[in-house]
Amino acid sequence: MTNSxxxxxxxxxxxxxxxxxxxxxxxxxxxxxxxxxxxRLERAQIASLALEADDMISPALESELLRNAExxxxxxxxxxxxxxxxxxxxxxxxxxxxxxxxxxxxxxIMDALRTLFLNENRIIRVIGDPVREGGLLIEVTMDEMxxxxxxxxxxxxxxxxxxxxxxxxxxxxxxxxxxxxVRPIKGVVTHMQAYARSPEDARQIITPTASVRELRDxxxxxxxxxxxxxxxxxxxxxxxxxxxxxxxVSHDLRNILTSAQLFTDRIESSDDPLVKRMAPxxxxxxxxxxxxxxxxxxxxxxxxPAPSLTRVNIAKIVAEVIDSExxxxxxxxxxxxxxxxxxxxxxxxxxxxxxxxFNLVRNARQAIMATGKPGEICIQATEDDQSWRLTITDxxxxxxxxAQEYLFQPFQGGARKGxxxxxxxxxxxLVRGHGGRLELQRTDETGTVFMVQLPKDDIAL
Length: 461
Hints:
The chain is built from ten helices and twelve strands. The chain has about 450 residues and is an alpha+beta fold. The chain folds into three domains: about 5-170, no CATH class; about 215-295, Helix Hairpins, CATH 1.10.287; about 305-455, Histidine kinase-like ATPase, C-terminal domain (Heat Shock Protein 90). Helix 5 (about 215-270) packs antiparallel against helix 6 and helix 8 (about 350-370) packs antiparallel against helix 10.
């Protein structure tokens, strides 16, 4: 019950009503005590009138008058003269004196609380103003225990009434919360559950019906979110279908272009001047097309396996990449250098790390070759207590502005003419799979610097 909204409202309502009743209970008990004592003063004053009517009254009559007034003594002050009107022996000394002529609210409350927690009977003196100008002062002595019993009876009645009011109020609020809040909220939850089972079904989108403004705002926001999500899911499904089709086309086209590459090898050996002049352009075009197909297929592999983390020697991997790129550079004046400790090992997937470095170095090499000028590519590795860092620096022309704006977005603009930009996207995805990050640190007309950072956290090797 305490886990439900209506149950908590019920409990809080009872608590708050009871607190409010406590704030009412204490002053009302103090007021009841004051009225009780004033009534005793009035009854004592009435009893003293018998003495004024007859100066000599019998002891039996005096005792009866005091017993009816529930006091031991009655003292009147008139014309600055203090007169003992009625009297009887006191069973014990007077323990406390209460003056009701002009008490403060705090004094009345404190006196009432002390009376409630009284453990034994005491004789008290009560002073007040006589009614109907019966003198200057009236003073009585009386037992305090009957006052306590009257206060307890009155207090129990107040508590029972408060409990009844609390239960009735809480029940009404419980029903109101059920109707106005809980049922509409359950309706929203039901809509959300139905939508979660079939988010592509537009019929499951909620229609705002709540009359409470806040709930209606929530329903309208949920409706907007569900509408956008349904559209996004449909678009995602279409893109997935399109991606599958593109992957199949790229696969078949790559096979076709690979066969075309074999024929270009023979065309290049032709003695025809026109063929010799056009063959290199044809070869370059086919090569770019093959590379685009391969990178598209690599990007489309959503089932890319998680990295198999082992200790790998980074120097060996970099050496393999440099050897491959030196062959690709051919006669172009591109120098490769490395600054890597021979014994440095990283916790990584060796094959995926090779692909990351290969993509970055290949991009740097192609950027320098496009300028037709000499250049240099440097690979540096460092480490500290938190991470390993690989820095790839080139002296190329820098990344174009469009490539910088869409650096890690596929098909948004490559670093060179005819490029797809997939190399950096694939490299960044592989690095993220290792828990690291790929950053562009600098790019301008003097060259470009990329950094791969892999964390050393949770090393269990």
